[in-house]
């Protein structure tokens, strides 16, 4: 597949770089530091959604559909940037004036108020960066996306290592916090001319047809991004309180490994699947495309995950020295992630066709299963219960998503039959 070959080098490069970075972090800051890094990354993910009011997938969808209509694109971006301004302003106020409460809630002390206040000045940058990435994805600019992704990642890693050397964990958290600035600069440098062509905004005004459409994506983003990161924060706190922060560090570490390869798949899916599904309206064409993706992409990720499991002890020694408590977590995490990949392919139909109710229901169902299972199984299996809960929710979600997609196509078929 063309898109897979275009991203192979980027995937390999990021994996190799990530291996060395995670090892350096593990040695320098230990399990406690890794847990704190997980906290700030969850917080940044929440900010990424709130600062843009979660309209990223909407931008991807409509840029793909309106790429040849300048008037519609102008109206779309006019509305989008009003959303960004509103979301960024509210997010900044909450972060700045709630810095003491947020610091104590997330880190159990007030030592990181400075970091939360720094974050309060970044939502506009984060929001604009998110929208520009949506344009890149919507236009399916695979090569430029790969360049942006790799260069932004390399520069952010360099900054992180410099800050780690001079300021240890505080420096790392600072570097992670300002990474969106680097990413935005790289994106504008590489993709600026295309952005200028497509993103021509002559006024800032809510165009209500687009505002209504984008609000649906905002709701979906709230569920899929804000809630899941909040739950991860809560589960990390639960592990710390019920067991200890060392185990919380182990769970955060396995999540880092998981999110490394899952981010590649989600990037490919966003670039390819949403624009593709947006143009498919019949069940036969949809499942033909799904089967093609399953035959080409899933085996690739499956082999990679199998290798990760086989060499898990070597991976722990290489990336997280002395994190011996991680080993039992690999099995359920990897199995859950593979099932989730299969689910994600189907679930992108919700985004491509703006099936808001189906998306929200499936995500809330998934989060509820995960939350309840993690809390219940942790008492029985310790931190391994959390990853077991992840597998259970992934399998249950696959069944739910498949059922919802079939119901949608069958109802559409019945509607068409009645019309005829």
Give a structural overview.
With 420 residues, this protein is mostly helical. The protein has one domain. It has helices at residues 2-51, 56-66, 70-97, 99-107, 113-119, 123-138, 142-198, 208-242, 245-278, 283-296, 298-310, 312-319, 330-352, 356-381, 384-419. The protein is globular and about 55 Å long. The protein starts with a helix and ends with a helix. The relative contact order is 0.12. The model has no long low-confidence stretch (mean pLDDT 84).
Give the gist of this structure.
This protein has 420 residues and is mainly alpha-helical.
Radius of gyration: 21 Å
Helix content: over 70%
Number of structural units classed as domains: 1
Largest sheet: none
Topology summary:
Layout: H1 2-51, H2 56-66, H3 70-97, H4 99-107, H5 113-119, H6 123-138, H7 142-198, H8 208-242, H9 245-278, H10 283-296, H11 298-310, H12 312-319, H13 330-352, H14 356-381, H15 384-419
Helix pairs in contact: 1-6, 1-7, 1-8, 1-9, 2-3, 2-6, 2-8, 2-9, 3-5, 3-6, 3-8, 4-5, 6-7, 8-9, 8-14, 9-13, 11-13, 13-15, 14-15
């Amino acid at each position: 597949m063309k898109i897979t070959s275009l991203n192979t080098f980027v995937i390999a490069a990021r994996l190799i770089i990530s291996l060395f970075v995670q090892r350096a972090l593990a040695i320098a800051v230990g399990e406690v530091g890794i847990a704190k890094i997980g906290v700030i990354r969850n917080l940044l993910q929440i900010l990424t959604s709130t600062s843009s009011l979660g309209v990223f997938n909407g931008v991807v969808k409509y840029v793909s559909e309106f790429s040849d209509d300048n008037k519609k694109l102008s109206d779309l971006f006019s509305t989008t940037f009003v959303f960004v301004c509103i979301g960024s302003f509210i997010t900044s106020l909450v972060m700045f004036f709630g810095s003491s409460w947020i610091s104590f809630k997330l880190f159990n002390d007030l030592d990181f108020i400075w970091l939360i206040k720094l974050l309060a000045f970044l939502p506009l940058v984060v929001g604009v960066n998110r929208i520009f990435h949506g344009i890149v994805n919507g236009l399916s600019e695979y090569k430029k996306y790969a360049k942006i992704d790799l260069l932004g990642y390399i520069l952010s890693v360099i900054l992180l290592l410099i800050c780690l050397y001079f300021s240890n964990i505080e420096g790392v958290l600072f570097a992670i916090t300002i990474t969106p600035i680097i990413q935005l600069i790289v994106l504008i440098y590489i993709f600026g001319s295309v952005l200028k062509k497509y993103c021509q905004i002559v006024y800032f005004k809510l165009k209500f047809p687009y505002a209504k459409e984008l609000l649906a994506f905002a709701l979906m983003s709230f569920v899929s991004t804000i809630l899941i990161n909040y739950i991860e924060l809560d589960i990390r706190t639960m592990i710390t309180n019920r067991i200890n922060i060392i185990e919380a560090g182990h769970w955060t570490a396995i999540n880092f490994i998981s999110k490394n390869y899952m981010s590649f798949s989600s990037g490919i899916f966003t670039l390819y699947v949403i624009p593709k599904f947006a143009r498919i309206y019949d069940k036969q064409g949809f499942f033909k495309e799904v089967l093609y993706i399953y035959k080409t992409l899933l085996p690739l990720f499956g082999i990679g995950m199998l290798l990760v499991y086989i060499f898990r002890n070597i991976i722990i020694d290489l990336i997280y020295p002395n994190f011996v408590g991680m080993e039992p977590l690999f099995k359920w995490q990897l199995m859950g992630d593979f099932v989730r990949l299969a689910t994600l392919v189907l679930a992108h139909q919700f985004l491509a066709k703006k099936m808001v109710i189906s998306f929200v229901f499936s995500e809330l169902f998934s989060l509820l299963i995960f939350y309840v299972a993690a809390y219940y199984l942790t008492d029985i299996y310790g931190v391994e219960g959390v990853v077991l809960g992840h597998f259970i929710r992934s399998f249950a979600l696959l069944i739910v998503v498949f059922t919802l997609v079939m119901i949608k196509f069958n109802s559409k078929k019945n509607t068409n039959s009645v019309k005829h």
